[in-house]
Amino acid sequence: MTTLGQRLDAATRGLPAPLAVVDLDALDANATDLVRRAGGVPIRIASKSVRIRHVLDAMLDRPGFAGVMAFSLREALWLVDHGNNDVLVGYPTVDTGALHDLAADERAARAITLMVDDVAQVDLAQRAAGSAAHPLRICLDVDASLRLSLSGPLRAHIGVRRSPVHTPQEAADLTRALADRDGIDVRGVMFYEAQIAGLPDSGPIIRAVKRASVADLARRRSRVVDAVHQVLGRRLELVNSGGSGSIESSAADPAVTEVTAGSGLFVPTLFDGYRAFAPRPAAYFGLDVVRVPAPGYATAFGGGYVASGPSTRSRLPRPVEPRGLALTGREGAGEVQTPLHGPGADKLDVGDRVWFRHAKAGEVMERFDAVHLVRGAVVERTVPTYRGEGRTFG
Q1: What domains lie within the chain, and their CATH numbers?
Q2: Which helix (H) or strand (E) holds 7?
C-alpha cells in the first residue's frame, strides 16, 4: 500500500524543497465535514488559517460557505479588489490609511465590516474616514471567555484576552454610544470562544471547562444579542460565533446567523486532539535531507517554522513521513537546518524528502510563495500564497 510520504514524493519529484503542499482529497473531505457539522448555518472562512486566495475562492464556491473573516483591513480591501463582496475583519484596526481607503471606496464600504470593542477605535476610524459619503459597517466583538467566581473575591478568566465587552449591559452601552453617530452602521456582534474552539479535548478538566463554557454562552449570547437589538430597535444582520473546534455548539444556538472556521480545512497538529471531528491533515511541507551526521540522525534543510502562541513543543512542526522521526530536544526546528533522530533516520539518505505538519493552519504559508495542490500522486495545480502575490498582512 502506498504511504502518504510515497504519494507526496511521487507528486513533487523534481520540485525543489522546502516546499508546501495541500492534499486536495483531504481538503475536500474536511470542507464537507465542516458543512455537515454546521447543520445548515453558513460558514465564514477564517482567512488567517488559509492565506491562499485560490483555496479561499474554491471553498466559497462550495455550498455551505459564505464570506471571509479577514485578519487585516488591508487584506480585506485586497480581497474585495479580487471580487469578494462579504468580508468581516476579525480584529480591530488602527491603520488610518486603510480606513481612509475604505471610506473612499463605495464597493469596499459595502463589502467590509469592521470589528470594534471600544469607542476609541470608532473615533479613530471616523477621523481617518473624514467626510466620506459611505457609512462604516461595524461589528461588536463580545468577550466569549468563561468567568468563574471562586472563593471570596477570587475570579477566574478562562479564555483569551480580547474584548473588554462581556455582559449584555456592556454590549448595550457600547451600542448606545455608537448607534446615533452619522456614518456608523452597527450591523453585527461576534463571539469567539477560544476556550472551546481552540482547545483540544486533552483531559477531563479541559472537557469540563468546555462544557461549562458552552452552557455559559448558550445563556449569555442570546442575552447580549437581545440587549443590542433593544438599543438599535431592529434585528442584527450578523451574529457570528464559533471556530473549527466548536461549530456544533455555536450552530445550535438560534441567535447565531453564521459560524467561522478555517483551521478545520487544513487540520494542523494543534487540532489532532478534538473529539468533535476526525482529523484529516491536508497541509504539509517537505524538506530534503542534506546530511547524515551520525547513526540514527539525519539533517534536513530548512524547517524553522514555529507557530505563534506559548513557547512550548506543541508549537513546533512535526515530522510525519517517513515514520519514526522526531525533532531533537537540543535544536528543535532550525533556522537553516533541522536535525532529526529516531529509528526512521537510519533509513534516510542524502537527497531523501521528509514531510512535516505545522502546528497551525495558515501560518506556515507565510514561509512559501507557492503551494502545490496534490490529488492522489499528481500535482493538479501550483498556486501562489498571499506571500507569492506580494502580500504580507501580519
Answers
A1: 4-18+281-389 (2.40.37.20), 24-263 (3.20.20.10)
A2: helix 4-12
Cell of residue 64, nine digits: 455551505
- Tell me the residue type at 132: A
User: Which residues, including other chains, have CB under 8 Å from residue 251's CB and lie 6 or more apart?
Assistant: 37, 38, 39, 40, 41, 242, 259
Q: Please, are residues 184 and 136 in contact by the beta-carbon 8 Å criterion?
A: yes
pLDDT for position 199: 61
Give one DSSP letter per residue of 330-346, joined into a string.
TT-S-SSEEEEESGGGG
- Interior angle at CA 59, CA 53 and CA 60, nearest 5: 90
Of the listed ranges 13-22, 108-117, 212-221, the least confidently predicted one is 212-221
Whether residue 41 has pLDDT greater than 80: yes
Question: Does the structure show a pLDDT above 70 at 200?
Answer: no
d(CA 114, CA 65): 20
Per the structure block, which three cell numbers stand in for 6? 510515497
Residue from 373, 287, 295 nearest 333 by CA? 287
Q: What is the dihedral of CA 74, 80, 85, 88, to 10 degrees?
A: -10
**Lookup: cell for 3:** 504511504
Q: Can you tell me the distance from the alpha carbon of 86 to that of 381, in angstroms, rounded to the nearest whole number?
A: 27
Cα separation, 124 vs 316, whole angstroms: 38
Q: Can you tell me the distance from the alpha carbon of 317 to that of 330, in angstroms, rounded to the nearest whole number?
A: 15
Query: What is the gyration radius of the CA atoms in the chain, in angstroms?
Result: 22
Asked if 365 contacts 392 with a C-beta cutoff of 8 angstroms, the reply is no
**Higher model confidence: residue 336 or residue 205?**
336
Is 192:262 a contact under the CB 8 Å cutoff?
Answer: no
278: left (phi over 0), alpha (psi -120 to 50) or beta: beta
**Average pLDDT, integer, range 260-283:** 90
* Alpha carbon separation from 159 to 71, 115, 162, 163, 194 (Å, rounded): 19, 19, 9, 11, 6
